[in-house]
Amino acid sequence: MPNLWVDADACPRVARDIIVRAAERTNTPTWFVANHQVPLPASRWVKSLAVASGFDAADHEIVKRLEKGDLLITSDLPLAMEALDKDAMVMTTRGEGLDKNNIRARVQMRDFMETLRASGEHTGGPKGYSDSDRREFANALDRWLARQR
């Protein structure tokens, strides 16, 4: 079975809880990678990997360990692009699948919004993590795990 990798630095707690329950239920090797220790329950299947602090240190460690067919859960678009280049699957914590067909447009939109913000435009931040986001993520993760069986 492929590994499940989580960019844990910005993973909402509710998504983390969903991932832990799903990993335990399906016996899926799961790694939460961050530049700090992520609090997790004792588990045979779920592990935390704390990396040295530094710019993108967790991202670099994830990319180094990713293998073809693994799933990465992240909202970090440059990290997602690197994972896709390694033939990994990528999903956001809102359950959105990222692939080679949609990642470039997402990165371009992100860059455009950063340019607007840098020019003083108020674009607002990402919307809060809602119950529908939680449901979409849990369902998308369950579908991926079911395909791995």
UniProtKB/TrEMBL annotation:
Q: Which CDD domains match?
A: PIN_YqxD-like
Q: Which domain of life is it from?
A: Bacteria
Q: Where is the signal peptide?
A: none
| Database matches in InterPro entries | UPF0178
Pfam short name (any one): DUF188
The record's listing under PANTHER family reads:
UPF0178 PROTEIN YAII
Q: Name the family the entry cites.
A: Belongs to the UPF0178 family.
What's the name of the protein?
UPF0178 protein L861_14805
Native organism is Litchfieldella anticariensis (strain DSM 16096 / CECT 5854 / CIP 108499 / LMG 22089 / FP35)
